[in-house]
Amino acid sequence: MNVLNKIKKFPFVLAPLAGYTNYPFRLICRQYGASLVFTEMVSIYTITKKNLIKKNSHFFYFSKKEKPIALQLFGNNPDLFYEAAKIGQEMGYDIIDINMGCPVRKVVRTGAGANLLDNLQLAEKIVKNTVKAVKIPVSIKIRIGPTEKKNVYLDFNKMAEDNGVKIIILHARTRTQGFSGYADWKHIENLKKKSRLFIIGNGDAKDRNSALKMQKETGCDAVMIGRAAIGNPFIFKEIKNKNYHPDLKEKIETALKHFELFYDFARKRAIFEMRKFFGKYLSDFPYAAKIRKELFAIDDYEQVKDYLKELRKTIIL
Ligand SMILES: Cc1cc2nc3c(=O)[nH]c(=O)nc-3n(C[C@H](O)[C@H](O)[C@H](O)COP(=O)(O)O)c2cc1C
């Protein structure tokens, strides 16, 4: 079955989130039902240098159980995109996604990410080379446009259609908005009406109701969920099954499992990096602030696990 058919079966996917969507978190989201996961954005410079791949192996590691998985690339150089996409395909990813939406200064400064929205010609060269390089589907992740006054998504849709892109992901904000304000879903609806491609809507799907609402109101082929999934992989199962709600025991057990996977993968770094997930997993526990304070003061693997196991006992009692 091709990737798009797999996504159609349950059209809710995990967004690329720098600093979050690495192997352990992606695997857990897949296990809770996300039909596609994305790596965090990876530079075309990094993936085309053997020594940098080795140094940054945590960006590239994935397990077969995560498949289908998309590799997201960012950069500004069409020739390197060609090489990078080829390498990504060889590594076994199922989709190559091109980042045209990141508004972060260190990315846009180089003309990459959301600054490509100002440069359709360069974006087209990048797309052409990427599509030429691989047999697997290529997607682009864009925003509405650079500013409120300048929408470019329909121009990018035409460019994508003309050059063999299969999927467009539209984060329905402008570059200047960053992550503020709200996502204007009418642009997703408009894109879906005008495009021949597979459209993934993104922005402010915060819970089961809003994710289903985006799907219904815009008619998009799939909904992408980002921030709402952090420490809350349960969201995918909640969307699938309206009677399902994780209880505190399941939350803590999933947090523990996530931590164990993370530690096996990243060792000591996992202890610190898990904190941003723990905060969310445990946010609706009684005395959450006290728990966070105590848990974040521990920097030993076994002690973190013991703390969580004790906490589980107090819940079960
Ligand atoms: C911490 C963080 C990291 C992100 N990293 C990426 C990234 O690497 N690549 C990307 O295309 N978008 C990235 N995004 C944007 C998300 O993929 C998504 O488009 C955005 O958060 C809107 O969706 P949401 O409302 O469901 O969170 C990031 C967003 C956040 C909050």
Residue windows where pLDDT falls under 50 for at least 5 positions: none
The percentage of residues in β strands lies in 5-15%
Q: Percent helix among the residues?
A: 40-55%
Distance, first to last CA: 46 Å
- Write down the CATH class of the largest domain: Alpha Beta
| CATH fold group of the largest domain | TIM Barrel
For the residues shown, what is the average pLDDT?
97
CATH architecture of the largest domain: Alpha-Beta Barrel
Largest sheet data? 9 strands, parallel
Number of domains: 2
CATH superfamily of the largest domain: Aldolase class I
- Name the shape in a single word: globular
Question: Would you kindly provide a written description of the structure presented here, covering whatever features stand out?
Answer:
- α8 packs parallel to α9 (153-162), α11 packs across α12 (234-240) and α13 runs antiparallel to α17 (301-316).
- Strands 1, 2, 3, 4, 5, 6, 7, 8 and 9 form a nine-stranded parallel β-sheet that branches.
- The mean pLDDT is 97.
- The chain has helices spanning 3-9, 23-31, 44-47, 50-55, 57-60, 78-91, 105-108, 120-133, 153-162, 186-194, 208-218, 234-240, 248-266, 268-273, 275-281, 288-296, 301-316; strands at 12-14, 37-38, 42-43, 69-74, 95-100, 138-143, 167-171, 198-202, 222-225.
- The radius of gyration is 20 Å and the shape is globular.
- It contains 17 helices and nine strands.
- With 317 residues, the chain is an alpha/beta fold.
- The chain has two domains: 3-240, Aldolase class I (TIM Barrel), CATH 3.20.20.70; 248-316.
- Bound molecules: flavin mononucleotide.
- Flavin mononucleotide (FMN) is lined by residues 15-19, 40-41, 72, 99, 101-102, 141, 171, 179, 202-205, 225-228.
